[in-house]
Amino acid sequence: MRERTIASHFVRAALRGAMVRGVDCLPILRNAGIQPALLDEPRARVAPEQFSRLMQLLWEALDDEYMGFGQQRSKRGTFAMMCHAIIHCRTLEKALGRGTLFYGLFPDGPRITLERDGDFAVLAVDDSLLQDPDHFLVESLLVIWHRLGSWLIGQRIRLEQATFSYAEPAHASEYELLFPTSRRFDAPTISLRFPVRYLAMPLLQDERTLKHFLEHSPADLLARPDGGDSLTSQIRRLLGRDCRDWPDLEAVAQHLHISPQTLRRHLREEGSSFQELKDHLRRDLAIYHLGRDELSIQDIAEQLGFSEPSAFHRAFKKWTGLTPGAYRAQEA
């Protein structure tokens, strides 16, 4: 989706395992279309297709789907083989259960478990054997398994809660796209909690659809955002329809059949505001267009509703630490 971008934190975190293994990451970054200088700017962001490409290149360079974070490699093709092992299961519970057994055959990797807890199912990952200081791999595994399960049954699994056994990080605001649910840090386990009813659902995929799925997965599972059902995601989808003539907060509230006061309160509860949502959407669309040559910077400014290019320049530098021209030069 062009309306979402990925914080440079995740690029730095993804590279850490390869760097520890002594891999020269500069060619990998350039092949992914990411200029190394972008990583020096904490506010910089990359497009989803760049991040997806980065993941694929890291797996190729290391021949390791754990990207250097495990005690042993998980050779390329392991995830695909697991998918082939589960695709003929009748229900999601059978498929996820078989998947956890499959990865349990590799004792030095992260242990994945699926358990029932009353009306909920809990998918947990034990990262005690990982060398993963940024928790990049364990979070990636949660995202991949959630989105794989959703793909298998042909509908998005609505999460009840995501828990993490470590302190809330500085980039916690980014987690809305990864784990669109309530999030709890400093918890006993790293897990996803979702209604148990999903486990009984039949698999709607087969060998034919799996072949297409594996052409881009699991890299695109990580790169593709999941806004879920949150209010902020609903508003972003509404605003993204026409960036030249965005509705104001009152019009959005009317569309959602709630009062403006209630809308403001709900956004505060989700850690956001209407202005912040508009700024983030403009930022992400700007990065999308700057990564392509179809539009001039002035045209991009006009498309995003800025009255003059100088206002766009100031806003973009505030968002990313770079001017639009500098960002486009980095992308070239």
TrEMBL record:
Membrane spanning stretches: none
A GO cellular component annotation in the UniProt record: cytosol
UniProt cross-references to PROSITE patterns, sorted A to Z: HTH_ARAC_FAMILY_2
A GO molecular-function descriptor: DNA-binding transcription factor activity
The entry's keywords: DNA-binding, Transcription, Transcription regulation
Residue intervals of the HTH araC/xylS-type domain: 229-330
Keyword Nucleotide-binding: no
PANTHER family: HTH-TYPE TRANSCRIPTIONAL REGULATOR GADX, HTH-TYPE TRANSCRIPTIONAL REGULATOR VQSM
Name of this chain's protein: Putative AraC family transcriptional regulator
Originating species: Metapseudomonas resinovorans NBRC 106553
Organism phylogeny: Bacteria, Pseudomonadati, Pseudomonadota, Gammaproteobacteria, Pseudomonadales
